[in-house]
Specification:
five-stranded parallel sheet, eight-stranded mixed sheet, binds 3-acetylpyridine adenine dinucleotide
């Protein structure tokens, strides 16, 4: 389609979304270039190399399903895969499907403008921070503006780190790390005094490991977190064989689950208060023993009814009180908010870690960190002397990376302007005013509430089919309509408002980033979403409008 220095498709990001999108568009015979800031593939698994990083969706589910040969041949060593193993898998996929030669690494997309006259995107790139001299030379040779008919954002939902603006942060004389931008070389904590700020999933995974190495670990907790044990271990070969004997059936059953995983132990739809206290306790206990995120599926109304939710919350609180020896520490570790409103954490020995003599918990919820000093952290009028600070402070989720780029659609309007009151998309796939732009697992789609690999494949397949449909009909431009987008945003909000999710100050709402507009960003419910996407497609991409190739431009725009 696009000649010269241009491509039919530019994809931003070489994580699981970008890699599969590349594979699909190449299969359509389209030219494509992926730009990736890192020096390798893997996205979130490339950047999040902190100690203990692993997936909390089971390995047999957190993997691609587009190639039966791949899913049959790949062997996972553990029930929940570690970051290094997932990164090996990502690299294996890149090699197996010949993806690398179409990816420009160490290159960041800094902006893109839609050229309405030419109906194409002009994408601006620059060497990423820390890029090698070779990348700089290659970038200079290739130019820093690339034309593309389609621009596909495979930028991930948790890719812009949230570094808190704590006074004095730049004065710290020791080492600072963010879990989401961990060094590639091993970090040595042995014999050192380490501070961890944050108690979300990244902290919950890294704290037990760091505590085992450090001379002293101080955890600065703003909000206590709910965590359930992973009960991780080697993958049972019999289980693996059973799944592989009917992998297609297993995948299909998982797609019918509200969060696109967990068909081995589906949600029990009964209300929590419809059974006796003892039956309820047993139901939670069985899932606690099983390990992982399935706890919240013990009853159908845990995320719908505050009283039901409280039964699950109280079950976990009792567990914390049972695990942590010091009652004061246990009290501090006990969360009060709705369980599941912030993403549930999955751990290996998290609460137990606070029984160690070298671990101290500091409550910065009531008294925020006053400042960071050259020697450590000052909180509650006390100085904690530290050699290293680990910021496990999360991400500017779902919109952070998209809004960092200077993306300009029709009439030069920026995405930042369009989304000043929160993100607005149609199906989490398209944005009105931004033709030929697709977002993979964007706000307004189930994405972060699901097994991401399943959501990614569903989006990529939908986009690829839409591109093929356009090819067949000689269409050059696709764009979501304002009307369809408005109705979709309303729907996403209405679904969320029926649940307990908006009751929590979570990153799903943008509440973790000071100044970010508070909007519940993901859509709840995977199967209903897939049905809607299929209906839109079957109705000729209802809610999108199409423009034909120039030679037949006199024809009126095709309406989806
Ligand atoms: O980030 P988070 P994360 N002073 O935002 C605290 C996925 N993930 O990187 O709750 C003091 O959850 C903040 O406190 P509060 C998963 O989807 C998956 O841990 O805002 N504290 C919170 O405790 C997950 O949900 C896996 O009051 C400050 C913490 O930092 C998502 O990534 C593993 C602060 C941030 O927690 C994000 O997880 C890891 C400040 N100024 C991550 N600012 C698995 O698959 C922030 N905090 C297992």
């Amino acid at each position: 389609m696009t000649g010269g220095r241009g491509f039919d498709v530019v994809i931003v990001g070489a994580g699981f979304a970008g890699m599969y999108m590349l594979h699909r568009v190449r299969g359509l015979g389209l030219s494509a270039r992926v730009f990736e800031a890192g020096s390798g593939v893997g996205g979130t698994w490339y950047w999040n190399r902190y100690p203990g990083a692993r997936c909390d969706i089971e390995s047999m589910e957190y993997s691609y399903q587009f190639s039966d040969e791949l899913q049959q041949q790949w062997h996972w060593s553990e029930r929940f895969a570690s970051q290094p193993e997932i990164l090996r898998y990502a690299n294996h996929v890149a090699d197996r499907f010949g993806l690398r030669e179409h990816i420009r690494f160490e290159t960041r997309v800094i902006g893109a403008s839609f050229d309405e006259a030419a109906s194409q995107w002009r994408v601006r790139v620059a060497p990423a921070a820390g890029a090698s001299a070779d990348t700089g030379t290659a970038a200079a040779a290739a130019g820093d503006e690339i034309a593309a008919r389609f621009l596909i954002m495979a930028t991930g939902c948790l890719s812009s780190t949230n570094m808190p603006a704590i006074e004095g942060i730049e004065t710290f004389a020791g080492e600072k790390y963010h879990t989401g931008q961990w060094p590639h070389e091993p970090v040595e904590f042995t014999g050192r005094r380490v501070g961890v700020i944050g108690t979300g999933s990244s902290a919950v995974q890294s704290i037990p490991i760091i505590a085992g190495q450090a001379r002293q670990l101080v955890v600065f907790q703003r909000t206590a977190t709910y965590s359930v044990p992973a009960h991780n271990g080697p993958l049972d070969p019999e289980y693996e064989a059973r799944i592989k004997a009917d992998y297609g059936g297993f995948r299909a059953r998982n797609k019918l689950m509200p969060n696109a995983f967990g068909s081995n132990l589906p949600r029990n739809d009964a209300p929590a208060l419809s059974v006796s206290e003892e039956e309820r306790r047993q139901a939670y206990e069985a899932r606690w023993r099983r390990g992982g995120l399935v706890l919240l599926g013990a009853f159908g109304d845990v995320m719908l009814d505050a009283r039901a939710n409280e039964t699950a919350a109280e079950f976990v609180r009792a567990k914390i009180r049972g695990i942590v020896h010091d009652p004061e520490v246990a009290e501090l570790l006990t969360p009060r908010q709705v369980i599941g409103g912030k993403r549930l954490c999955v751990d290996t020995g998290y609460y137990e870690t606070f029984n160690r003599p070298n671990v101290k918990l500091v409550d910065v919820g009531r008294q925020p960190i006053e400042r960071i000093t050259p020697g450590g952290i000052r909180s509650g009028g006390r100085d904690y002397e530290l050699d290293c600070i680990v910021f496990a402070t999360g991400f500017d989720a779902m919109t952070g990376t998209l809004l960092k780029m200077d993306i300009r659609g029709r009439s030069g309007l920026t995405l930042r302007e369009r989304w000043h009151a929160g993100p607005r998309t149609y199906l989490g796939l398209g944005v009105a005013g931004f033709p030929n732009l697709f977002t993979i697992s964007g706000p307004g789609s189930p994405s972060v509430l699901t097994n991401m690999l399943v959501s990614i494949e569903q989006h990529v397949d939908w986009i690829a089919e839409c591109l093929a449909w356009m090819q067949e009909r000689g269409c050059r431009v696709v764009e979501a309509t304002e009307r369809a987008q408005d109705a979709w945003v309303e729907h996403v909000n209405a679904v969320a408002d029926k649940t307990l999710y908006p009751n929590c100050n979570s990153w799903y709402l943008g509440a973790n980033v000071p100044g970010k507009t508070r909007v519940f960003m993901p859509l709840i419910g995977f199967p209903g979403y897939v049905r809607k996407c299929d209906e839109v497609k079957a109705a000729g991409y209802e809610g999108f409008v199409f423009e034909p190739e120039p030679r037949s431009r006199s024809a009126s725009p095709a309406k989806g």
